[in-house]
Amino acid sequence: DTAVSQTPKYLVTQMGNDKSIKCEQNLGHDTMYWYKQDSKKFLKIMFSYNNKELIINETVPNRFSPKSPDKAHLNLHINSLELGDSAVYFCASSQLAGYNEQFFGPGTRLTVL
Amino acid sequence: AQSVTQPDIHITVSEGASLELRCNYSYGATPYLFWYVQSPGQGLQLLLKYFSGDTLVQGIKGFEAEFKRSQSSFNLRKPSVHWSDAAEYFCAVGELQGAQKLVFGQGTRLTINP
Description:
By secondary structure, chain A is mainly β.
């Protein structure tokens, strides 16, 4: 039973296209996150949602739009893809209260050509 | 702003040897510190965390880390590494901004020689 799952695992697309990455967690957590890991393995938070409400937005271009249909899902939609968007995107979840462990998904490798 | 520095980008050790991965942080208040491991093609897994109390914390897979406030360090150690420990290791400092915000170091890639 996968705790945090992401689809697709790999995504190859052309510049200018719009794409979505889906994330689901079955841990009953109330908070979900999106992280971006660049080619140098640097990992940076993008967004955090708690009970479908956006609570962290880290200066991400507005081409990136997270959507949380319920607290078990947090999808990432990216418009007008650029070369610099190529990266591995990780979804994570946790309970909000305190510093509970964040559980990470396996990642989605996005390649923009 | 808080930051994390992992001075070693790549470390190679022999199987059975001891390991220490360095982590230095910059944070104005009491830091919440974490070590995560990322195996090839996988997501991140929490090894251990420090919030308060005993400055030597034990984690999974035989890892431990020591918090030293005077040195702003949180180094990860293991007395004897196994080939399966080969992975990328990330140190992170956390703060609460409505939700947990983790700031990661740039990672240290660990290679194990047989």
